[in-house]
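Lab notes, practical 5.
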Amino acid sequence: MIEIRHSSITNSTKSQSAYDDLYQDGGIDLSDSYYLWLLEKIKPVPGKVLIDVSCGRGKLAILAKNRGLRVIGLDFSLSALKVAQLADPELDILVSDGEQIALKANCADYVTHIGNLEHYQNPSSGVREVARLLKPEGTAVILLPNGFSIVGNIQHVRKTGQVFDDGQPIQRYNTREGWKELLEANGLTVFRTIRYEHFLPKTKQDWISHLKRPSRLLRWALAWAIPFNLSNCFVYFCRRASIAD
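Output from the prediction step:
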C-alpha cells in the first residue's frame, strides 16, 4: 500500500478540521453522473435503508432519497453537512466519524462508501463499521483507488516522478487484490468487483463539462482497452463475511 500523510494530520480531529477547510474552499464532489451510474449498478429497492458513509455534501444521499430510499448521510465535516442540509432540508444527516458510527448494528440494507476509506486514520476500523451496520442480507458498495492506474497514477509518476497527491489530509493507494484483502480481513466478503473509468454523462450539466474537455469522452471510448487490474478505481460489492461464508 502507498500512503501520503501530511505531517500535521496526527488524529481524526485534525483530519476533521482539514476537511472543513477543504469543503469551505469548494469541496471534492464527484459528478452527478457518477453517482447516478453507481445507483444503477446497486439497483436499490425503494423503501430500503441506505447509509452513505462520509457523504460529504450529500449528492449521492440526495439522489438516493429521490429514488425512494430511506437515507442517512453521515460525515464528520460540518462544512460539508451544512451544504447537504441546504440542498435538502429533509435529508437525515448525522455528524459522525466513519471509524466510530453512532448507529445500531444491522440497520442498513445498503452502505455506500465512495472514495473515502483510503483517507481514514485507520481504514480497517472503517471497514469493520460498515460490516457492523449491514443487515444479514445487506450490500456494501465501496470505491477505492488503484495505485497502478494506467491513465492515472502511472501517467502521473511517469511525468513527475511522484505519486499523485490530491491534497487531502491522508491519501492511500493499493492494488485490486490488496484492497480486497483489507476488506475481507475486517468483516466483509467481496462478491463482485467492477472498474471505474469515465463513462457517458447522464445529466445536461455533465454533458456540457465533457464537451469542454473532449479528452474525457476519448477516455470513455478507450476504457475497454485498459486491463482490469490497471483501472482507475475499483468498486467492491460486499456482504457481511459471517453470512457470505
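Observations recorded by the TA: The chain has one domain: 2-244. Residues 233 and 241 are 23 Å apart (CA to CA).
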